[in-house]
Every structure is written in C-alpha cells, then in structure tokens.
Structure prediction request, 334 residues.
Amino acid sequence: MLRPSQPESFLRGCAFPPGEDVPYPRAAMDALGARLPLDTLGTASLPVGVRLEWVGDARAVVVDYETATEELGYRGAGAGRTFALYRGATCIDEQVARLGRHRVELQAAVDGRGEAPCILYLPEGMKPTVHQLIAVEGAIEPAPRQPRWLCYGDSIAEGWIASGPAGAWPAVAGREQGLDAVNLGYAGSARGEIVSAEQIAELEADVISLSHGTNCWTRTPHSRAQFTANLEAFLSVIREGHPTTPIVALSPLLRPDAEQEPNRLGASLADLRSGFEEVVRNRIGAGDALLELLEGVPLIGAEQLPDGIHPGDEGHRVLAEAVGPIVARACGRL
Prediction:
C-alpha cells in the first residue's frame, strides 16, 4: 500500500516504507522482513511511537484518519485509543478515536517564538492511517528534523504498561532530549534475531540503543552461552552497518520472578544479564569507544512494576530520566 502523501512530511518515528495493509511498519516488510519471526512481524505492524510533528500558528488541527480495529489485546487502552497532542511535556488536548474513517479536531494553541513543536501521538493500537492534517485558523509546517534514535527492545521499550503511547519511556525521552525516537520495541519477541540487526544496520541513525533479554529467559529459552553468542553477533552486524554510530546497551531490568529461576536451559535472568554485561564490557575493552553499557537492575524497583514485569507510568518516567540523557549525550545533544 501507499501511505497518504499529504501527512508524510509531518511523520516522525517511522523508518520503514509501508507494507501491505501496514502503513507505518516498524520492521521491513520485504524479503528481509519475511525472515523475522511471526511474533515480531505481528507487533511490528503496530505504529508504536509513530507521530506527527509540526510548528505554526494554527489554533487547531483537524486529523482525517481511518482506524482498522478496536481489539487492543493485553495492553487494553494503554495501546492507544486517543489522539494526544503534546507541547514538550504537556498534553494540551486529547480526543477519542473511533473505528473507521472519521475526522477529529484538536486544539493546538498559538506557537509563539521559542515554543515547543506540536507532537501528535496516534491511537496506535487501533492501527490508524492518517489521510490528511488540516490547519484551522492559521498555518502549520513540518517541525525541524531531529537526530534519529533507533530504540531496539522488547515490550518494555514498546511501552507496556504505560497508560498511553506518549508515556512509553522512549517517547518521553525523545520529547525531553529532542530526539526522533524510532521505536523498535517488539513485545513478546526481540530476542536479538540477526535479521533485526541486519535491518538496523541498513537504517540511518545518529544513535542506537539495545534493551532486550527478558524474552530470552522464558518465551524462547536461551542458555547463557547461547544468549551471549547471539548478542556478540547482533552487535557485530549492527557495527558493520554503523561503524561510527554510538550504541547504548541497556541490560535487562529487574524481573523478580525470573532473577534466580532457571529456565528450561538452566539460565536465570540474572545469568543472562551478567552475560549481556560481560559481552558489552569485553567489546568496550577491545576498543569500541562508541559502545556504552547501562546496567538495568539499579534503574527500576519492584514497586514500579505493577504486573511484576513491566513498568507503569512512573517507571517509564524513571527510565526516560535515566536513559534519555545518556542517549542524547552519546549523539552529541548534551
């Protein structure tokens, strides 16, 4: 399919061309993408983190859109049922999305000198397509491009279980740090598949982050040796495509039920985490000065994991505050 042309210049967080019935994919939907696991392809069809950004003096904007589903699955409303318009950290308007083809108006206020761009988050769980963005009582133009941050990870990077798309830690960090966050968080998957590394290696990027491992403990069990070998290969493939791009590697966050519990192949999450950190430290020691390790365990406490696995809104804000400045500094934004 072709994406509607009028909103294209306003799109951010969208690194791949459209696929069949997938206007804003988060993985390549071509022959390379066909090698991805089905669970990765499924979550990559959701436009997580895709948004519209503009500047201008329009009092409001009208969004001509179409949604494909109301079935939001495990995430429920947190997957996105509204259009939410932000300026910086402030949500200035939010309107409910409906199933099918409709229009919705959001108040945008006046963009004074030095005021933050408007950022419109989509009802991503409803699989929307934006056909047109219409200025009301004024004009708008695409916001200036920002450094591109490729954020690879699992359901935590995707935003589970924040109360809405704008609350996912990559979205919060992107707003705060002035980065074009491209969310490559794949819920239930993101096990460091080489084809994902190949796709990342082919994309333009100013900075890259990695934050995976939980799904290698249980969903597709890995031994420690298997996990570390895969991570070594994953980083090597990315580095081939990005020899001078900073990479921030965030080891798995705390998961109380998995820390000391061996999986089918005998590895606890603590085992996998220590392997992750060992691989990254060894590569840094071997001379990769553009690779940085951020240890995940100290960042989030059990009380910030409402379901025992995923952070709530507070936890996502904590992650954004911890990771965002490191990512921004790595690409020269601080």
In short: The mean pLDDT is 95. The longest strand covers residues 128-136. The chain has two domains: 8-142, 148-330.
